[in-house]
Each structure stands twice: as structure tokens, then as C-alpha cells.
Amino acid sequence: MRPGEVLVHRGVITEKQLKKALDAQLILGAHLGTCLIELGYLDEDRLGSFLSEILGVRYAHPGLLAEIPANVTRTLTPAVVEKHRAIPFELSGKTLSVAMVDPRRLNSLDDLSFVSGCRIEAWVAPEVRIMQAIERYY
Asked: 0.90 cut: is pTM over it?
């Protein structure tokens, strides 16, 4: 079942809301979750929790991305961050925690690990939050 269908099945959104969000997605080219937030059908935390559940990774809530130290942002280049839509937010030893739009992409995880020289711990965050963090820090 697709994520939008799961949201309808669980009663989080209606079929009509899903259709409207899918139509907006075609026009804007954004992720479905971004469209659901922009249309006011879902808040960011609810979307983040849902994504965490279906992807099996932790949710990087907005507070984690609010004040990222410069030594952490320097672990990845702006080009790599934009390419993979990933923002590093915590460095603990040789483990780099990274909030991503799609934490399932193995090639992205490999590239992030190679560039940073760290083991990557992938978290999920809605596209809109990742893009805001990229604009702020890079």
C-alpha cells in the first residue's frame, strides 16, 4: 500500500484530500507529504512520525535541526547535502546523524559516509524541513 493510501486507510486524511494533494504534487513537483502539509491536511510532526513508522528509522523533529553546530555542518559539502537532500545534525565520535527525505537510498548513505568519513545514522524528516535547514546552514 502506498503512503497516501495508508493515511486514508487509517483515517488521517480523506480520499478527497489525498486526491487534492496528489494533484498539487503533479503541479509543484514536491513530495506528497510536503503537499499535505502545505494544504493543511497534516502537521509536520504527524507526518514525521508516520514516515518514521513506515520507513523504520527515527524522526528528526524540528528541534533537532534548530541549532546545528558548525563542526557538524562542515562534515558534508553543500553539493552533497543538496544532491541527497540530507542535513547532518549531530556528530558523536565517528557516527554522523543525518536527517534525510529518503533514508532508504543506499547510494546516498554510501556517498554521505564516503564524503564525511563517518558511519551514517539515517533519520527521516519531511522535505520542507530539510529544504529549510539546507537554506539556513548551507
From this structure: no
